Amino acid sequence: MFDTVVIATDGSDSVKRAVDVALDLASRFDAEVHALSVVDASEVDASPQQLRDELQTALETTADAALATVEDRTDEEREITTAVREGRPAIELCEYAREVDADLIATGTRGRHGENRLLLGSVAERVVRTSPVPVLSVRQLETVQDDDAGSDGLATGA
Fold first, then answer.
1. CA distance 17 to 106
2. What DSSP designation does 42 have?
3. What is the number of other CB atoms lying within 10 angstroms of the CB of residue 137?
4. Which domains does the chain show, CATH number per domain?
5. φ/ψ (deg, to 5) at 148
């Protein structure tokens, strides 16, 4: 049923549970696993010119660390393909899924409270709406409630 699973990651806390769920699912179906982290080009473009190179390097370092976290959570017997892309996170994720002929995209999302409780994060919602394949959106479980601000598990500024 699932031969190829793509895991979207930015290394945030809201992605950790999604990584574990996606890896478990991939293991059950003996699926190929890809992990993708997207450097949001709009963040770099919106920064002052003198900071762009430094910000680009920092975002790439964060993306590499996010992928290393996925690799660390993967059992030693499973190979995982990792990639870093630059662009709009939802667009890049969907394009990557097409390229690798994915059967599923797994993404984290932060649970929303109050009147926004049915909403996903902006990137996760865009992926759900535009993905060429089914999307598994895994909600972060929190014991401490906070306001609606925060990461959706993929990227900001998308």
1. 10
2. H
3. 19
4. 4-140 (3.40.50.620)
5. -75, -5
pTM of this prediction exceeds 0.90: no
Q: What are the pLDDT digits (tens) for 63-119?
A: 999 999 999 998 878 899 999 999 999 999 999 999 999 999 999 886 444 444 444
Say which residue the tokens 């990137």 belong to: 123
Q: Tell me which residue has tokens 């909403």.
A: 119
Quote the crossing angle between the two packed helices 52-73 and 13-29, to the nearest 10°.
40
Beta-carbon contacts of residue 140 (< 8 Å; ≥ 6 apart) = 13, 14, 16, 17, 108, 109, 110, 111, 153
Collapsing DSSP to helix, strand or coil, 67 comes out as helix
Give the residue among 100, 150, 148, 153 at the shortest CA–CA distance from 123: 153
- Cα atoms in the 13 Å half-sphere on the side-chain side of 102: 27
